Amino acid sequence: MERKKNISMAVIKRLPKYHRYLRELLKNDVDRISSKELGEKIGFTASQIRQDLNCFGDFGQQGYGYNVKELLNEISGILGLSKEYKMIIVGAGNIGQAIANYTNFEKLAFNLAGIFDINPKLIGLKIRDVEVIDIDGLVAFLKETPIDIGVICVSKNNAQTVADMMVTNGVKGIWNFAPVDLEVPEEIIVENVHLSESLLTLSCLMNDRTYP
Amino acid sequence: MERKKNISMAVIKRLPKYHRYLRELLKNDVDRISSKELGEKIGFTASQIRQDLNCFGDFGQQGYGYNVKELLNEISGILGLSKEYKMIIVGAGNIGQAIANYTNFEKLAFNLAGIFDINPKLIGLKIRDVEVIDIDGLVAFLKETPIDIGVICVSKNNAQTVADMMVTNGVKGIWNFAPVDLEVPEEIIVENVHLSESLLTLSCLMNDRTYP
């Protein structure tokens, strides 16, 4: 399948939403859907949907619409879900535990291989059969078990140190929940979930209704 | 101060990041900063910074740069932080507890007024002096205590019902952690934190290095 290069970040950010809606449609035994119907469900215009999906190849047929299963498969592939990912979580506080407990991720190809913390009270705790290990064992663990994704759920003061340990030991992608921008080599992908920034976006929009 | 209308969502989404960096600068006693220096810190170009901040009025002086305190004050105002917000959390699982425990929010003007859950094991639990209340008491609570922001940390199947209860009882903004798009009246602001979508963005970028 031919894909255009230089896909914008905005399109990439919309793909997981397509993925979510298409899974829902498939679960409800919907075989095919037009860009108009899909747009109404997702809240995008039909033309935006056609434009987005065209970036990745020639989906959909005039007058027929999209084959839901086929489109879902294609988008799953683009999202990297044809592979499996081994994931560790560093920081077993509330956020770390929330992620460890979220079984939906495993359905999507992300397998939790380890959880680490510095707090003696949390070490030994079992979260869905995965035991929280002392952070002192992190490097040895990474040397033994190749890990694709490291989830950082520690405080902002410790996040960079943890990121460095991950990167030095083969982690390729970092999902960062600490409120700090990490410095990593260019080839490492970082996806941030900055909760405070999300909350401030909410208050910003609540405060001035002239914004979009 | 004169503000342009039709500020793009992209600019709004960048403001909390400016806010975070400016707070850090002020904490480190930095009085003024050029758009170039600020850009290097944040990872934006100087011209993007000037363009972003110009949307909201005429900050900064040629040859002097930005007065950090003044700029922080302005951005705080734009982000709605000159007000205080009363917030409730519905769903006292890991995510709900993480948010309740995150003291940084209160420093920013968001005050936790109540936490609700359906699970008898959680009801009565105290998180930072706020007791988890039975969800059956939510409507009565909202009628008595005007709440600005409702945080939804329940499962996707219950999220819409909770949103409806909130909206009917005066909540103006919803911070939604459930993996579902809520239907609300136009005047209600919803900010979503869709964790699965964030993780899929990560795997997408890890999977094909030709993307941005």
UniProtKB/TrEMBL annotation, chains A, B:
Pfam families: CoA_binding, Put_DNA-bind_N. Residues 80-181 form the CoA-binding domain. The keyword DNA-binding applies. GO terms for biological process: negative regulation of DNA-templated transcription; response to redox state. InterPro entries: CoA-bd (IPR003781), NAD(P)-bd_dom_sf (IPR036291), Rex_actinobacterial-type (IPR058236), Rex_DNA-bd_C_dom (IPR009718), Tscrpt_rep_Rex (IPR022876), WH-like_DNA-bd_sf (IPR036388), WH_DNA-bd_sf (IPR036390). Keywords: Cytoplasm, DNA-binding, NAD, Repressor, Transcription, Transcription regulation. GO terms for cellular component: cytoplasm. NAD(+) binds at G91, A92, G93, N94, I95, G96. It is found in: Cytoplasm. GO terms for molecular function: DNA binding; DNA-binding transcription factor activity. Residues 17-56 bind DNA. Its main location: cytoplasm. The keyword Lipid metabolism does not apply. Belongs to the transcriptional regulatory Rex family. Modulates transcription in response to changes in cellular NADH/NAD(+) redox state. HAMAP family: Rex. Homodimer. This is Redox-sensing transcriptional repressor Rex. It comes from Clostridium tagluense. The gene is rex.
